[in-house]
Amino acid sequence: MPSTTVSGGYVGRFAPSPTGPLHAGSLVAALASWLDARAQRGRWLLRIEDVDGPRCPPGADRFILDQLARCGLHPDEPPARQSQRGALYQAALMRLQAQGWAYGCACSRKEIAAALLARGGTLERHGELVYPGSCRAGTQGRPPRAWRLRSTAGLQNEASLQIDWQDRRLGAQTQDLTLAVGDFVLRRADGLWAYQLAVVVDDAEQGISDVVRGEDLADNTPRQIRLQQLLGLPTPRYLHTPLVLGAHGEKLSKQNGAAALALDTPADALRALREAAAALGLPAELAGASVSEFLASAVQGWRAFDGMMPASSSPSPLAPALPLAQPGDESAF
After folding, report:
1. CB neighbours of 94 closer than 8 A, spacing ≥ 6?
2. Which residues participate in L-glutamate binding (predicted)?
3. What does the pLDDT look like over 10-66, one tens digit per residue?
4. Residue 20: left if φ>0, alpha if ψ -120 to 50, beta else—which one?
């Protein structure tokens, strides 16, 4: 079932995981999504992706909202929270189960690794195991640990499934979902919802027309497009922004100790916004002595991109081919 492209007015979003404060790399993605919405006179929403509750310390979401407010990035609606959307995710899973695309998996990580090696496979892909479909025909009486989505071309056709899409910065993209990812998790062994299912359901429910996020998440797009196809949901337009690297060439992230943004004064916020705008390839001479004035100037600069962010923008150390990240822990184990 082919997915349809979102039509109608522009609706964008920024969807941070409240596992810690925003850092410089987070602000680049937040600013890009806000600018894209404002440049197209659209709406900008916030979604707190707290589906992995054990990793979200109390108060982290409020701290992130305060950081965004200090930078003048205000949403057009109160923030949505994934932790309140379990019924929507359950309904989507049940639909996929009824169609035969979702199945229970009883495998442990050790068993998956052994199955891959037995088939002559490798244990690479940045440490992520490409699931070989061991439980597609059943769990042999064992209780399922997780629920997975078949990554094949059809229910009776195990040919590889290729997903193609167009990125507004990276251009034409393709991935063999079967070989590169395998059957991926929809609900984890610990009962938590996997990012892939949650974000697809959320984007459709909120009417998101454009997803603007960091380039490290481009690897997730084929899985999300496949879920959109199977659930009959529209496919947003995608724009993956440049990544900002740390001093040693690693992607800035909470996992590697990226420092929280220092936004104690309006001058601090303005400085952080200027650095984020530079990372996005916006002109260095953007005007504005205050946060609001600078943002107005940045919107005009973003409009000059005319809907297609330059692929060559690299004002700060960027990562053209970093290991592709997984939001949260999407393991079944």
Report:
1. none
2. 13-17, 49, 195, 213
3. 999 999 999 889 989 899 999 999 999 999 999 999 999 998 888 888 889 999 999
4. left
Two domains, one topology: 11-85+197-305 and 100-195: yes
Distances (CA, A) of 262 to 19, 73, 142, 222, 280: 17, 16, 51, 35, 20
Contact (Cβ atoms closer than 8 angstroms) between residue 225 and residue 165: yes
The structure's pTM equals 0.87
Q: Which residue has the tokens 């600078």?
A: 294
Compute the distance between CA of residue 209 and CA of residue 136 in angstroms, rounded to an integer: 34
Binding residues for Zn(2+): 105, 107, 131, 135
Residue ranges of the binding site for L-glutamate: 13-17, 49, 195, 213
Q: Which of 3-7, 49-53, 225-229 has the lowest mean pLDDT?
A: 3-7
Binding residues: 13-17, 49, 105, 107, 131, 135, 195, 213, 254
**Domain residues of the chain, as ranges?**
11-85+197-305, 100-195
Dihedral angle of Cα 107, 323, 49, 260, to the nearest 10 degrees: 130
Q: Annotated binding site for ATP, which residues?
A: 254
Q: CB count, 10 Å around CB of 152? A: 19
Question: Per CATH, which fold does 100-195 belong to?
Answer: Rossmann fold (3.40.50)
Place of tokens 């079967």: 178
Contact 88, 201 (CB under 8 A): yes
Contact between 21 and 264 (Cβ < 8 Å): no
